[in-house]
Amino acid sequence: MIGLPLVNRFVIAERAVRTAAPHQLLDAVRRVLVEQYAADSVELFMADYGLTVLQPVSVLPHTMEPVSVHNSPEGRAFGAQEPFVEDAPGGGSVRAHLPVSVRGDRLGVLSVVLPGGDHVRGCLAELAEIAEVLGREVVVAERDTDLYLQARRKDRLTLAAEMQWQLLPGRSCTRPEYELGAQLEPAYAIFGDNFDWSATAEHLMLYVTNGMGEGIEASLLTNLAINALRNARRAGLPISDQAALADQAVYAQYRGECYLSMLMFDFELATGRAWVVDAGSPQMLRLRAGSVERVELEAQLPLGMFEETDYVAQEFRVEPGDRLLFVSDGVYAVASPKGEAYGDAALARAIQATRLLPAAEVPRAVLRELTGHRGRPVPDDDALVVCLDWLGR
């Protein structure tokens, strides 16, 4: 079987993954890699919601320990989004760690123990493709099984956090024109902050929400607003009308007692022209040519504060090489023990310090810096960071 042409065994592997039952994807990958690639062992690790560990995919009771995202071979492959090969214990074999991603959304790592030498060099690129196929099938399988969602949590989610995570489009996305990354903290007990995005051939629409309240009430408010925006967006309406319809939906439910702040963007991929509705407190900072500055926008009323508010889209432009960071008040307003707000100077320093990181890694790095600035591990509010690297056409 090992002597089959490479293309044939890849097709066999792809078919095995594609036809496996949703809860048996790892079993299918393990079986075909043992048969076709002489693998000794195969394990799948999923990144947890806090992006701190890689959790093994297994049925309860779990017998394998999670590994760190930051200082492990698996974490190295996850962070670099490149295969990483190390010697396996015992000699003669190697362990290949392969990123499992879908269109830039980093899901986890597939770790495979293989014979060393020319064997692994000859099949590493193909194994990386199989890991990518597995990633796509995991995303599809999550409609039918909780196995992979369970593997993403090292702690139990609050109900509010469960509702919020189910709203999100992913945590990162890559296209030729841009790269996106986003992170919410505290990951297992978030309240009302949220982000959303949607792309077509010509446009990227991006939404950054600063929620109001706590717990289930905050989550219900955000769910209503996000779904109202999606309903308007899918009807083909411009962002100003999307904001107006979401505003009406929230006001009709809460009569002004609850509302939420939002930044809404419509980027034209071909030109870098963008339209924005600034409906509240999230802020935008831009790293351009080595300098960080806050982008001042025309402030408008939060969604749902008053009945039938009219919204106007403001135009601005992004240039190739621009990095935009969008942050909630749980980031820029956080005070240090000495009373200095994070957004005064520390946030700009964090943006400079992370300028060489890819967009997908920036939000988590900025939030780590925020924890140090705050001086205590437990935050008082949601913290949301979204990073957009504009590459242009």
TrEMBL record:
Domain of life (superkingdom): Bacteria
A Pfam match: SpoIIE
Keyword Hydrolase: yes
Keywords annotated in UniProt: Hydrolase
Source organism of the structure: Streptomyces rochei
Signal peptide stretch: none
The protein's name: PP2C family protein-serine/threonine phosphatase
EC number per UniProt: 3.1.3.16
One MF term in the entry's GO annotations: protein serine/threonine phosphatase activity
Lineage: Bacteria, Bacillati, Actinomycetota, Actinomycetes, Kitasatosporales
